[in-house]
Write a structure and sequence with these properties.
Layout lengths: L4 H4 L5 H9 L5 E6 L6 E6 L8 H6 L3 E15 L21 H6 L2 E15 L7 E7 L1 E3 L2 E5 L13 E8 L5 E3 L6 E5 L2 E4 L15 H8 L6
Parallel strand pairs: 2-7
Antiparallel strand pairs: 1-2, 3-4, 3-8, 4-5, 6-7, 8-9, 8-10, 10-11
Length: 221
């Protein structure tokens, strides 16, 4: 996952932005109308990094946090285009980008606010609020749906969640993987998270003890 998404998305096509945002290769889209909502539905596909063990998932995460859901909103996220003339720090130095060019770079995203209840890895403390950015959402009556993404706003808000996240240098965070990166917590037990649209995640660990052991490099026989 990228660090500081806004500054690193720089004069690239909308499809390339989807690739970088999700750490994927080869996204595609299609659209249709939803008879129930009356909205146009734009379906997106993307290949995300996959993890084959809890150790790999923990290693690939900047933070591992237990949270409760607070709120969410959808928005188009645009790159922060640098004014630097140094091509070493700004690959697009000397290229003029119009307002319409930048508008076409917008990535439909949902930003969920969660509150940390406990932190297993990283610098967050209980009580901190964290902004989690995910692909998709409803913007201007268009429903952007990424095929494998469970938006946190659609997950049962009565349950605690364990999130594995990549940090954006103080500008929010995203899940390292939209399925592996969120698990439901019930006591010490971890289960695959589900959302209201039928998406189901993967629980690479059955309990919090296994996650803590992976974080501290402790393994059983």
């Amino acid at each position: 996952m990228l660090k500081n998404i806004r500054s690193m998305l720089c004069f690239i096509t909308p499809c390339a932005i989807l690739v970088i945002l999700s750490g994927c290769t080869g996204p595609s889209t299609s659209s249709h109308s939803s008879p129930n909502s009356g909205r146009q539905v734009v379906q997106m596909w993307a290949d995300y990094p996959r993890f084959d063990s809890i150790d790999a998932l923990v290693d690939g995460s900047d933070s591992v946090i237990a949270v409760r859901y607070v709120s969410a909103h959808s928005e188009m996220i645009y790159p922060d285009l640098s004014n630097s003339a140094d091509p070493l720090t700004n690959p697009q130095a000397g290229v003029k980008v119009s307002k319409s060019d930048k508008e076409r770079m917008g990535v439909p995203s949902t930003v969920s606010v969660v509150q940390v209840t406990s932190s297993l890895k990283g610098s967050h403390k209980p009580g901190d609020f964290v902004r989690i950015t995910q692909l998709g959402g409803v913007i201007d009556n268009v429903d952007y749906v990424e095929n494998d993404t469970m938006l946190l706003e659609n997950v049962d808000h009565n349950q605690s969640l364990l999130l594995f996240v990549s940090e954006h240098n103080g500008n929010g965070a995203d899940l390292v993987n939209p399925e592996d990166g969120v698990m439901a917590i019930a006591g010490d037990t971890l289960t695959a998270a589900r959302d209201t649209r039928g998406h189901k995640g993967r629980a690479l660990a059955g309990n919090l003890g296994s996650v803590k052991a992976a974080i501290h490099g402790v393994h059983g026989c």
